[in-house]
Every structure is written in structure tokens, then in C-alpha cells.
């Protein structure tokens, strides 16, 4: 169960700009969607917490069943990190394949 | 009851429009009426310059800004209605005369005529006569005296129209003033108002008291009516309410109903006025004028906004308002909170007033209010509003100093904004801190509860738990958490396999849709580059659920409405429209339900730029209301603009909705489904999906058919047809000149109906043809085909007006119905059913090649189209034909020197015939002519209508006789000089038509040719066919006879027509047609002999009436005896003249007898009083064909008195013709022929 993870970068107004499903979890669509729903629901708590602390990493803010949500908030309130890209238009979707491979490589390291 | 009644009728002022003076040429009259007809609505605001308030107006709530007076023009006037008192709108309240000056040079005469015409309209409060195109002399003299005649000097169309507008406004103003007067008078004096219903109940003393009580209610109702007519629905409503109350108390049910009816009209009008208030019309004009108009309007808008702001601020300052933000609503108001809120109120009000000052463009005022607000908010700790007020003050500062750029100002602004941002931040933190205090622990508790949930084994336990968690998160304002748990709940519901749970799931899901900002995939691709959070998921999940909530299926494609039918063109044929589908007897039925047909294998053709419609059926199987924000056809081919509509569907219902759109490009269109916006979700529903579902239902795989369980009718499998879009075609639209209401005609009335056709398409019309269809086609007498043809090609926007002459058909039992209301006489009137009018079918087409089809696919000819124009004719029962009877008169002639004139005598010259005709005028009996066997057709007519009819009988004698070398009539109508028979309403009258004129001069075998063969030559084998032939022959001759009799009627000024007497007369004549048409084979006449003792002087017919003195009183003239009288005791020579009317020689044996007044034979027997010389019996004679023979004898009368001479003959060897004429069956029977009796007046002493 532990070897599954969903990584999403969310811009303001709940707009996801990057998402990656990593790990060897069952590829049932229902489950994949479940992850997204859980992450979405966690945003409520994140929003509250983000104002109370100056820390950017919010550790485990929420959980549902066995799934734990941890969040990294940027200064611009983009949740989780983004790499610097001068051509990036804030709020638009991250489409770089390079970024994607890096994320997945990192994920493999920890799972 | 009239055909054009609507709810608004109660507010329409009826105005009789009468042409006066010399007859106005038809097109002129039409243009005048059209000009008049534009002014059916006169705005109250436009008449204020003509209006002067003499007394205090009783219409206190008259909407001078928005209201209007409505006119209804009654062309040709209208008879007074018995229900005038009951509904004032039935009164003719004004009379407008139309006078064409070139046709009526004497204006005084016109004025008199107009005044006379007005007398018929006692209720008219204003009278105007519009005289068009006056001559210079008329203009000069016209100005001084005649106030009712208004001259329209000749000028261009625009000036005339403007003049007309002014006149109508003036008329409206004077009507309004008259109404005021009337109401004031009615309020003070009171009037007795009655309807025909009242007159039936006798007024006993008790009744009388009741009537007095009722008076008030009725007066109030009538005042209400007048208020309605004056365009003041609020006043009307007040009066109607009083009337309703009073009528209810006095039990005056009819008037109660009337008042309620009026109040409905008032309500409608009020609503309409309110609606219109916000609509400003921009009349078509050039760009500049429009822009100027727009500027004025915007200035007006600004001014009214400013005034509204002022009002708001004043109200806010005096009353105070509670102002809130979404931040406040979340914190509950404890008692402490409440006190704080009260304190904060002032600050917030000041801040808002400041906002309004800013909007009103007064930054200094705004700043003052903002400063107060800042101070107050700071004191009450209302940080958010503090920040808001500061922000406002910065804005005010900027606006105030907009013009000068000042570094100091910039600094100030920067500083203040910094403060503002700080404050906003603080307020948010403060707010959040509060929330967190409560929320933190609750969230923790809830999370652990949810954690515990997974250990629950029973799904319904978990369901309950999740419901609670979702609810609590929702209360905390954790929308996303709430949505998440709601979704969990829905999933749990869905795991239970039953419909109720599924519905609950849907309901829960709809709550989540907001949090998930769900949008469809299609839209996300197009418009939204970054779909919102878990879009993929929810879309898949939610839209699947939505497709369970709503079901769509294609209902039908309405075929082209009959106005725009497309017809294939056959380039080979001149009549290109023939043979193209759809044809058949029922091209158009006005009441078929939208011409829906099953479109299983149908090819549909749509046209670029013309809107099309598709019926889609929607079913809502859920147990809650479904609000569809917008739904439109989904078309992927990109050549179709769909128009969205919004629908609401109650639980468990289905609905057929009409979705429309416009094809934009040539090509194929496929409609796979609909796109639906519902609960913030955009989904595409494919019709195919439902087909599968329905298929499943029919196979028992799915539990139920959603449409059937929603009460929809039988399942209907509808496959999308192949739709192709073709290039633009011409589009003809029609309207009836003079309004689209039906033309009301009395039976048999002949009237021109003008239909104007406009090409509303973008392609010229090059071919057009008019045909007839529908019922009563033969009522259309003529269509001006040439007018239409001469107008071709009809350019886009071109218009042509075509006259169609209609003769109103006869109402029969099947195609008429009884008028719902009773006419004044109490008997029901017949009126034609709707849909019994004939239809004009106009086929038209553009050029053979379409202009923009340059790609060379020229083998296809652009199709033509068909327009169906119903001739809206409402036929009222007119003169009623009661019955026809054939009367015969027998009146013996007197013997004189000359024979009675035969009408079609052999030697009859035209002159003689003319004189005959003069003599015949008025059926008076000439005693010397007699009228033996004279037959009169009596028509009994009754007039059930409420107008007066005048009937005129004329006969059309054709020159058929001339073939026989006889009478040679011109084909014109012979006017018998009958005076017109006037039939008043509710009376009947009889018209007599002498049938003598129809006798053929010769008894010819031709008439019997078939008859004779039948009876004698042919055996019984063919007799049945031959009999039928004979019958047909007989009918043909009757029809021929009847068609010569014209019963024409006139009513009023404009109505005239012809009475259809055919059927009734036919029945009356059937039995004796032979006697009417055919002469006897022999005719007998007596005259005094050449050297008889009768008067030597030939007395002219003129003198005959003078000399026709009674016997015994001889005139003073030297001719002692009257003409034709015979002296007793004198031998009187006499001649009997026998005329053979056949073309064969007739051998006969003649007998002459003489009878006295008692009918005794006085020649033979022992008491004979007459002696005679010559032979009187069994005289054998032979008459050559068509010639006279004479037999002389002498009589000696012993006793003076009246005698009757009779001649009779037995024909020997009668021919078949004679036998047929005598209707004898056996060939042995002798044919006996008897002449008409002649009187002999014998004078002298006994």
C-alpha cells in the first residue's frame, strides 16, 4: 500500500498545473481519482494552516484512511515547488517533459 | 361574440371608419386606411400638448409617461351592439370619415353626409372627417367653418403621415377629455345600465329595489371600463374592485363576471405598461441621429441614477441599514456580537454612503464620509471595513486630484495603500484566527471519526457517519472537505443497488458540483487551458451521474412549416412544382400538431441563414426539480449556431422542448446530442445513449424506461435524419393588407382581399405561381395572376400586393358552428368554423442556377418553395333562405279585338318585347291579357343578422332563343323594375320571381330527344341508364334556369353579394320544370271577329285602363261600350285562334264551349242562354307547324253577364314528343289539349 504516491502542483484557485501518479499502485481508475479527491479535500486544511505558520513545508496536514497528505507552500501560495522557468506563465499548466522525468526519478528514489 | 376578441379588447377604443363623399378609388381608400391603421396605439405622453384639464381628472393614476390609448378601427362602421352598456369598449366611441376630395367637390355636401352618417353612432364622442387632396378652392373655403372636416393638403407621404399622426393625437386627447367628462357625470348622476338579459325579467317591486341597488355596481364597472379605455389600468382596477364587491353583494352575477373580466384586462395592461417602461425605441435614422439619441438616453440614464443615489443616501442616513460581508455570515451572532454589530453599523453605513458619493461623482463628499467611517470602524474594531473605507478614501483622493500630477500625492497614495493592505491582511488573519480556534479541534475530531469509519463493517453505518462529517465540514466552511465526504456518501449510495439510493446519490452529488467546478471536456479543451482541480475525475464521474439524472431523446424534426416548404424543381416542366413531394390533398391543416411526421428515413434540407427547430424530449426521473440553466443542440460540423434555452423540469416529468439554431454554411449537419448546463456542470448528452437505454428497457435489461415512467407517451424511436444545408433560397412572407384578423363576410358577400407578399430572403424570386387548395376553393372568384407575374423578378425586400376576389361560401351544417354568444334576437347565429377558408398556395423559386455555386456542380437545380396563405375569411350567416315555393296563378283573359300578347310570339319584335317588359314590371295583371298558368317562384328570406339587407332580383336572359329565330335578347340583366326589397333585422320577406320568361317558344323534340328514345324506342334494358340521362338532362335545364335568376343583396355601404338559391329552388322546381320551360303543343286564343259588333275604334292600351269602366255605367265618350265588352241580343262574331307550337303538323278535333258564371254549359241543353252559328264541336282542323289557324263562329247572348269561353282539342295521331309532353304512358291514350279560359263580358238589358 505504501508504494503509491500522487504528486500534484496546484496553483491558486485550486487549478492543478502539474500532476504525476507515481508508484506501482493498482491502476484502477477509481483509485487514481480517489487520490485527486483526497488531495483536493486537503486544500481546506492547508489554506488554514498556511496563514498560521511561516514554514513552507507543512508536513502531514491531512489523511484519509491510509493515505497521508503533505504539502509544500511557496511564497506565492503555489503549493509545492516549481522550477524556475523564464517562459512560464503563472497559472498555466506545466508541460515540460524534462520536469516530469525528474519528478518521477526522484519519486523512485524514495518509494 | 366577435372573431377577434382578446383580453386586451377591453382597452381598445372602437372607432368607426367610414368613407364619405364621392366614391373613393380602391387603391386610394386602401392607402388612407393603411395610414390610419398605423395609429392603433397613441402614447399618452404624446398627447399632452393637445390635452387640457378642465376639471380635476378622475383618472388619478393615469400613467402619463408610459400609458397609451389603443384604437380599434372598424372599417365601414359597425351596428350598435345590445351589450354596449355592459362593456363600454363595444361602443363606437369615435367616427372618422375618409373623404377623397377630387371625388367629392362639394365639401358642404360631404359635411352633411358625414353628419348623417354620424347620427347612426349615438355613442360617438368625437367625430372627424379627414379630407385628402383638397383642391385649392376647397382649401380656401374649407378653413372657415367646418370644424369636423380636416383637410390634408396634398404633399409628400411623410408630411401626410405626420399630419395624420397629429390628427390622431388630437383625437386621442379629445377622447380622453370626453371620457373624463363621462366618468365625472356618471359618478355624480348615476345611470341605469342594462343588458339584454335584464329586459327579459320583469321588474316587480322587489326587482325594482334590487335594480336600484345594482345600479351602483354597474356604474362602477362602467367607470372602470372607461378608465381602461383612457389607458389608466390602475384606476380601472380600483373601480372594478368596487364593482366586484358591490355586484357580489347584490347578486348581480353577470356584472360581477363582467367586472372581473375587466380587472383581468386591467392587470394585463398594467403589466404591459410596466414592461414597456424600460424599452426605449430608437427609430430608424442615420448614424448621427442615432448616436445623438443614444447620447441623450445615456444622459437620461445618468441623471436618473444620480437621483436614485441621492435617494439611497438620504434613506440610509435616516434609517440605517445592516450591511454584511461573507466574512460576517460565518460568525454566529452571540449577544456580545450583536452589540458589536450595532456599533459597527454606523461605520459601515458611512462607508457605503461614501461609496455612493464616489459613484455619484462627488469625491469631496465621499472623502468626508470615508473619514467618519474610518474613525468609527477603528473604534469598533471592524478591521475589514476600516480597510475598505481607507481604500475608498484613496480612490476619492485620486479622483479629486485627477488633473494635477503631484509626487506628494503619489507618496500619499502609496502610503495609504500600504495601510489598506496591512488592514486587509489583519482582518483576514483575525477572522481566520477566530475560525481556527473553533475549527481546529473540530477538524481533528472529525478526522479521527473518519479514520474510525474504515473499521465500520456495515456500509450504511459508514454512510451515516460520512453524512454527518460532510455536514459538519460544510458548517465550518470547509467546502472541499464537505464535497469530498459527500462524494464518499454518494459512492456508498451507489453501492446499494436501488433507485432511491441512486437518486439520493445524485442529489448529494449536485451539492458537490460547486466545490469541484465541474466542466465538460469539450469546453475545457476550447476555453479553459487549465481545467480545475480534479476535473478529469469528476467529469467522468459526475457527468455519468448526470446522464442518469436527465434523459434526452430526439423527439422530432418539425418539417418546414407550410410557410417555407421546399419544393423540388423539375427543370423539364413548365409547371416545375408538379410531381414533387410532398403533395396530396392535405397540404396544410392549420391545426395539425406542428406537422410532425416520423422522420425515420427522412432527408432534411436546411437553408443557410434560416432558423430551424428540433424537438427534443427531456425526462427527469429524479424526485427533485431539475433546473437546466441552458440547453442547446450540440453540432460538431461547425456550420450551425445553436441557441440555448433554459428549462425547469418538475420531478418525474418529461417535456418536449424546442431547440433552435441557424445553419451558417452549406454542407451536412449531424446532431448527435445536446449540451446541457445544469447545476454548474456542462455535459454533452448523446441521443445514442438513450437509444441504448431504451433498447435495454425493451429487452428487460434495464429496469424502466425513464420516459415512460415520467408520463411520456409511447416510446418513439427516432433516428436522426440526414440533414444537408443548402445555399440561401428566396423566402416569401405574406400579410393581409388591413390587418391579419379574419375578414368577416356575410354568406354570398363578394369582397376583394389584398394580400401583400414580400421577399424576405436574399435571393430574387424569378418564378411564381398561385394555386388554390383547402376547403371552399370555389369561393375564390378571381386571383390577379398577372399582378404577380408582372412583379417578377421580385428582388430581396420587394413587395407585391395581389387582390383576390372572394365570394363568401354558404354555411353548411358541417363546416359551421353556432356563435358562442347569442345574438340580440336570442337565437343562435351560425358562423363558419375556423379552418374552412380556402388557401392560396404560392409556388416560387429563385434563378435556375444558384449565384455562389461556382464550383461547377451545376447539375443540381436550386429547389423552389411553397408558401401557403390561408385566406382568413370568417363567414357569418347572412340572409337566410327559408324556402322556395312555386305558385301558380290563373286569371282568365278577356275577349277583345286582339289576342293577348305572347311573350315569345313569332312576330315579336324587340320593341314589342321591350314594351312587354315594361308591362311586366311589377307583376300586375292586365285583364285583357290574363295570365293563365302563370307561375311565380316565391323565395322566402329571413334576416337573422343585425344589419339591414336589401334584395334585388334580376334575370339574366341569354340569347339562346335567337337560335330559333325568336327573341333576341342582349345578355345583360333585365331589371324588372322591382323595387328593392328591404329586410330589416329579425324580419323575413318574400320575393316573387315570374317564371314566364323562361318558356321556350317551340315545343321541340330536342328537349325530349333522350326522353323519347327512352320511352318508346329502347326496351327496358337500357331504360335505367337512359332514365339517368333524362334526369341529368332535366337537372341541367333546371340549373340553367336557376343560373339566370340572380338574387343580389346589399347591406350597408360596402357589403354586397349574391344569395345562393340554387339548391332550394331546384327542389321547388323539380316537379314542374317541364311546365315552366315547355310551351303547350297548342295554344288557344279568342278574339272578336273582324266585322263583329264590337267597338270599331281600336283602343290603345293606355286608354284601356281609363275605359275599363264598370258595366252599366258607360263613359261619356261616344264609344259607349268598354273595349272587349259584348252587347246582348246581338250577333257577335268570334274567332278562335289555334297556334301550333311544334315543328310537326297537328291534326285535331276542336271543341268550343261557353259557360256562364255558374259554370253551366249555356250553349247546349234546354236552358241554353246563348245561341250560336257555325260549328262549335268536333271541328276537324289541321295546324301547320309553328303557325296559327283560325276558326270563326258567331254567338248571340240572350242574357247580359259574364261568360267564359273555353277551347279544347283532341290531338289525333300524337307524336312521341306530344306524348312525352303530356306525360302519357300508353300510346293509345288520346292526347287532350285545353286552352286557357277567356272571359266575355256581355252588357245590355235582358
TrEMBL record, chain A:
Cellular component (GO) terms are:
cytoplasm
- Record-linked Pfam families: Sedlin_N
Identify the stretch annotated as signal peptide in this record: none
Fetch the InterPro entries from UniProt.
Longin-like_dom_sf (IPR011012), Sedlin (IPR006722)
Q: Provide the organism lineage as a comma list.
A: Eukaryota, Viridiplantae, Streptophyta, Embryophyta, Tracheophyta
Tell me the GO BP annotations in alphabetical order: endoplasmic reticulum to Golgi vesicle-mediated transport
Gene3D superfamilies referenced in this protein's UniProt entry, alphabetically: 3.30.450.70
Recorded superkingdom: Eukaryota
Q: Which organism is it from?
A: Musa balbisiana (Banana)
Can you say what this protein is called? Answer: Trafficking protein particle complex subunit
UniProtKB/TrEMBL annotation, chain B:
Polar residues biased stretches: 1097-1110
Indicate the segments forming the Trs120/TRAPPC9 first Ig-like domain, all copies. Answer: 579-680
PANTHER family assigned to the protein according to its UniProt record, in alphabetical order: TRAFFICKING PROTEIN PARTICLE COMPLEX SUBUNIT 9
Domain (Trs120/TRAPPC9 third Ig-like): give its ranges.
911-1077
Sorted alphabetically, which InterPro entries does this protein's record hold? Ig_TRAPPC9_Trs120_1st (IPR058565), Ig_TRAPPC9_Trs120_3rd (IPR058567), Ig_TRAPPC9_Trs120_4th (IPR058568), Trs120_TRAPPC9 (IPR013935), Trs120_TRAPPC9_N (IPR058563)
**Gene Ontology cellular component terms for the protein in this record:** trans-Golgi network
* Protein name per UniProt: Uncharacterized protein
Region described as Disordered: spans on this chain: 1097-1119
Q: Which Pfam families match?
A: Ig_TRAPPC9-Trs120_1st, Ig_TRAPPC9-Trs120_3rd, Ig_TRAPPC9-Trs120_4th, TRAPPC9-Trs120
Q: Which residues form the Trs120/TRAPPC9 fourth Ig-like domain?
A: 1112-1242
What sequence ranges are listed for the domain Trs120/TRAPPC9 N-terminal? 9-197, 209-269, 337-398
Amino acid at each position: 500500500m505504501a508504494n503509491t504516491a500522487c504528486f500534484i502542483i496546484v496553483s491558486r484557485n485550486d487549478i492543478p498545473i502539474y500532476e504525476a501518479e507515481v508508484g506501482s499502485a493498482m491502476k484502477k481508475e477509481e483509485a487514481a481519482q480517489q487520490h485527486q479527491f483526497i488531495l483536493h479535500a486537503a486544500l481546506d486544511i492547508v489554506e488554514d494552516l498556511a496563514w498560521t505558520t511561516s514554514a513552507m513545508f507543512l508536513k502531514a496536514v491531512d489523511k484519509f484512511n491510509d493515505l497521508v497528505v503533505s504539502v509544500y507552500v511557496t511564497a506565492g501560495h503555489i503549493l509545492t515547488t516549481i522550477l524556475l522557468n523564464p517562459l512560464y506563465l503563472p497559472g498555466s499548466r506545466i508541460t515540460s517533459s524534462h520536469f516530469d522525468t525528474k519528478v518521477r526519478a526522484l519519486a523512485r528514489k524514495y518509494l | 361574440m366577435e372573431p377577434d376578441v382578446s383580453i386586451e379588447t377591453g382597452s381598445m377604443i372602437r372607432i368607426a371608419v367610414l368613407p364619405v363623399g364621392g366614391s373613393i378609388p380602391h387603391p386610394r381608400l386602401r392607402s388612407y386606411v393603411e395610414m390610419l391603421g398605423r395609429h392603433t396605439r397613441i402614447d399618452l405622453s404624446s398627447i399632452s400638448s393637445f390635452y387640457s384639464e378642465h376639471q380635476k381628472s378622475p383618472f388619478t393614476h393615469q400613467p402619463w409617461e408610459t400609458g397609451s390609448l389603443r384604437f380599434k378601427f372598424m372599417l365601414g362602421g359597425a351596428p350598435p351592439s345590445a351589450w354596449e352598456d355592459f362593456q363600454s369598449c363595444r361602443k363606437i366611441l369615435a367616427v372618422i370619415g375618409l373623404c377623397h376630395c377630387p371625388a367629392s367637390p362639394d365639401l358642404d355636401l360631404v359635411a352633411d353626409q358625414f353628419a348623417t352618417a354620424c347620427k347612426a353612432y349615438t355613442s360617438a364622442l368625437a367625430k372627424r372627417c379627414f379630407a385628402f387632396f383638397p383642391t385649392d378652392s376647397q382649401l380656401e373655403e374649407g378653413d372657415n367653418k367646418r370644424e369636423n372636416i380636416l383637410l390634408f393638403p396634398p404633399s409628400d407621404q411623410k408630411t401626410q403621415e405626420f399630419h395624420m399622426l397629429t390628427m390622431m393625437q388630437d383625437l386621442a386627447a379629445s377622447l380622453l377629455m370626453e371620457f373624463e367628462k363621462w366618468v365625472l357625470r356618471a359618478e355624480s348622476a348615476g345611470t341605469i345600465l342594462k343588458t339584454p338579459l335584464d329586459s327579459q325579467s320583469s321588474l316587480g317591486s322587489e326587482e325594482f329595489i334590487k335594480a336600484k341597488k345594482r345600479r351602483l355596481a354597474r356604474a362602477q364597472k362602467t367607470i372602470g371600463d372607461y378608465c381602461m379605455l383612457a389607458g389608466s389600468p390602475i384606476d380601472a382596477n380600483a373601480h372594478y374592485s368596487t364593482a366586484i364587491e358591490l355586484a357580489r353583494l347584490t347578486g348581480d352575477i353577470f356584472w360581477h363576471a363582467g367586472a372581473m373580466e375587466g380587472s383581468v384586462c386591467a392587470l394585463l395592461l398594467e403589466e404591459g405598461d410596466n414592461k414597456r417602461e424600460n424599452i426605449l425605441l430608437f427609430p430608424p435614422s442615420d448614424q448621427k441621429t442615432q448616436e445623438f439619441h443614444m447620447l441623450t438616453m445615456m444622459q437620461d440614464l445618468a441623471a436618473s441614477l444620480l437621483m436614485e443615489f441621492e435617494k439611497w443616501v438620504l434613506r440610509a442616513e435616516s434609517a440605517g441599514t445592516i450591511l454584511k460581508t461573507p466574512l460576517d455570515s460565518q460568525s454566529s451572532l452571540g449577544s456580545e456580537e450583536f452589540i458589536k454589530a450595532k456599533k459597527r453599523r454606523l461605520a459601515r453605513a458611512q462607508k457605503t454612503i461614501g461609496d455612493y458619493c464616489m459613484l455619484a461623482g462627488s469625491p469631496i463628499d465621499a472623502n468626508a464620509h470615508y473619514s467618519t467611517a474610518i474613525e468609527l470602524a477603528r473604534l469598533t474594531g471592524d478591521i475589514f471595513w476600516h480597510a475598505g473605507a481607507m481604500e475608498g478614501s484613496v480612490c476619492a483622493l485620486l479622483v479629486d486630484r485627477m488633473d494635477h500630477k503631484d509626487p506628494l500625492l503619489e507618496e500619499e497614495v502609496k502610503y495609504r495603500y500600504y495601510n489598506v493592505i496591512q488592514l486587509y491582511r489583519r482582518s483576514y488573519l483575525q477572522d481566520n484566527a477566530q475560525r481556527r480556534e473553533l475549527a481546529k479541534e473540530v477538524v481533528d475530531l472529525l478526522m479521527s471519526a473518519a479514520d474510525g469509519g474504515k473499521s465500520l463493517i456495515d456500509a450504511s453505518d459508514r454512510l451515516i457517519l460520512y453524512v454527518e462529517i460532510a455536514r459538519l465540514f460544510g458548517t465550518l466552511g470547509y467546502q472541499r472537505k464537505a464535497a469530498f465526504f459527500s462524494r464518499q456518501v454518494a459512492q456508498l449510495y451507489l453501492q446499494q443497488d436501488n433507485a432511491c439510493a441512486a437518486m439520493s446519490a445524485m442529489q448529494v452529488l449536485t451539492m458537490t458540483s460547486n466545490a469541484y467546478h465541474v466542466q465538460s471536456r469539450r469546453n475545457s479543451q476550447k476555453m479553459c487551458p487549465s481545467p480545475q482541480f480534479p476535473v478529469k475525475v469528476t467529469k467522468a464521474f459526475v457527468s455519468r451521474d448526470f446522464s442518469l439524472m436527465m434523459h434526452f431523446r430526439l423527439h422530432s424534426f418539425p418539417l418546414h412549416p407550410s410557410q417555407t416548404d421546399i419544393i423540388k424543381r423539375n427543370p423539364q416542366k413548365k409547371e416545375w412544382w408538379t410531381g414533387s413531394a410532398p403533395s396530396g390533398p392535405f397540404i396544410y391543416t392549420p391545426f395539425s400538431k406542428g406537422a410532425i411526421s416520423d422522420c425515420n428515413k427522412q432527408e432534411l434540407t436546411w437553408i443557410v441563414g434560416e432558423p430551424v427547430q428540433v424537438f427534443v424530449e427531456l425526462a427527469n426521473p429524479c424526485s427533485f426539480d431539475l433546473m437546466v440553466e441552458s440547453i442547446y443542440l450540440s453540432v460538431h460540423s461547425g456550420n450551425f449556431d445553436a441557441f440555448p434555452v433554459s428549462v425547469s423540469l418538475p420531478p418525474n416529468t418529461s417535456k418536449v422542448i424546442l431547440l433552435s439554431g441557424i445553419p451558417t454554411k452549406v454542407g451536412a449537419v449531424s446532431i448527435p446530442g445536446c449540451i446541457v448546463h445544469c447545476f454548474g456542470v456542462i455535459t454533452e448528452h448523446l441521443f445514442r445513449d438513450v437509444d441504448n437505454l431504451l433498447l435495454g428497457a425493451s429487452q428487460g435489461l434495464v429496469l424502466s424506461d425513464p420516459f415512460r415512467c415520467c408520463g411520456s407517451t409511447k416510446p418513439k424511436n427516432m433516428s436522426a435524419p440526414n440533414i444537408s444545408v443548402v445555399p440561401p433560397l428566396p423566402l416569401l412572407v405574406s400579410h393581409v393588407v388591413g390587418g391579419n384578423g379574419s375578414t368577416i363576410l356575410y354568406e354570398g358577400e363578394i369582397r376583394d382581399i389584398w394580400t401583400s407578399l414580400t421577399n424576405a430572403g436574399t435571393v430574387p424570386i424569378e418564378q411564381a405561381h398561385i394555386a388554390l387548395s383547402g376547403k371552399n376553393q370555389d369561393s375564390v372568384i378571381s386571383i390577379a395572376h398577372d399582378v404577380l407575374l408582372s412583379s417578377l423578378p421580385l428582388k430581396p425586400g420587394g413587395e407585391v400586393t395581389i387582390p383576390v376576389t372572394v365570394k363568401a361560401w354558404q354555411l353548411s351544417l358541417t363546416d359551421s358552428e353556432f356563435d358562442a354568444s347569442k345574438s340580440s334576437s336570442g337565437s343562435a347565429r351560425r358562423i363558419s368554423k375556423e379552418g374552412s377558408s380556402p388557401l392560396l398556395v404560392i409556388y416560387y423559386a429563385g434563378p435556375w442556377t444558384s449565384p455562389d455555386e461556382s464550383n461547377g456542380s451545376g447539375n443540381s437545380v436550386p429547389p423552389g418553395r411553397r408558401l401557403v396563405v390561408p385566406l382568413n375569411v370568417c363567414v357569418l350567416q347572412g340572409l337566410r333562405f327559408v324556402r322556395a315555393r312555386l305558385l301558380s296563378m290563373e286569371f282568365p283573359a278577356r275577349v277583345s279585338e286582339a289576342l293577348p300578347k305572347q311573350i315569345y310570339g313569332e312576330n315579336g319584335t324587340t320593341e314589342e318585347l321591350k314594351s312587354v317588359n315594361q308591362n311586366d314590371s311589377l307583376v300586375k295583371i292586365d285583364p285583357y291579357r290574363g295570365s293563365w298558368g302563370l307561375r311565380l317562384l316565391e323565395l322566402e328570406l329571413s334576416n337573422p343578422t343585425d344589419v339591414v339587407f336589401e334584395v334585388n332580383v334580376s334575370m339574366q336572359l341569354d340569347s339562346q332563343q335567337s337560335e330559333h329565330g325568336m327573341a333576341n335578347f342582349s345578355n345583360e340583366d333585365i331589371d324588372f323594375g322591382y323595387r328593392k326589397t328591404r329586410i330589416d333585422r329579425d324580419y323575413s320577406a318574400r320575393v316573387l320571381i315570374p317564371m314566364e320568361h323562361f318558356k321556350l317558344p317551340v315545343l321541340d323534340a330536342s328537349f325530349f330527344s333522350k326522353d323519347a328514345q327512352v320511352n318508346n324506342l329502347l326496351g327496358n334494358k337500357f331504360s335505367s341508364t337512359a332514365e339517368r340521362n333524362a334526369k341529368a338532362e332535366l337537372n341541367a335545364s333546371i340549373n340553367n334556369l336557376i343560373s339566370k335568376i340572380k338574387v343580389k343583396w346589399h347591406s350597408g355601404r360596402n357589403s354586397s353579394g349574391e344569395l345562393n338559391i340554387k339548391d332550394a329552388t331546384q327542389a321547388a322546381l323539380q316537379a314542374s320544370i317541364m311546365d315552366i320551360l315547355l310551351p303547350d303543343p297548342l295554344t288557344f286564343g279568342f278574339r272578336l271577329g273582324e266585322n263583329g259588333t264590337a267597338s270599331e275604334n281600336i283602343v290603345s292600351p293606355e286608354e284601356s285602363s281609363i275605359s275599363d269602366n264598370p258595366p252599366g255605367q258607360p263613359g261619356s265618350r261616344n264609344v259607349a261600350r268598354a273595349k272587349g265588352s259584348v252587347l246582348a241580343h246581338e250577333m257577335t262574331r268570334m274567332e278562335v285562334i289555334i297556334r301550333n307550337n311544334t315543328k310537326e303538323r297537328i291534326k285535331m278535333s276542336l271543341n268550343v264551349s261557353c259557360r256562364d258564371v255558374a259554370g253551366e254549359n249555356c250553349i247546349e241543353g234546354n236552358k241554353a242562354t246563348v245561341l250560336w252559328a257555325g260549328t262549335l264541336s268536333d271541328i276537324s282542323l289541321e295546324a301547320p307547324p309553328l303557325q296559327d289557324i283560325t276558326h270563326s263562329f258567331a254567338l248571340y247572348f240572350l242574357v247580359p253577364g259574364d261568360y267564359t269561353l273555353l277551347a279544347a282539342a283532341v290531338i289525333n295521331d300524337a307524336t312521341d314528343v306530344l306524348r312525352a309532353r303530356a306525360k302519357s304512358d300508353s300510346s293509345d291514350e288520346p292526347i287532350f289539349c285545353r286552352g286557357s279560359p277567356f272571359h266575355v263580358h256581355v252588357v245590355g238589358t235582358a
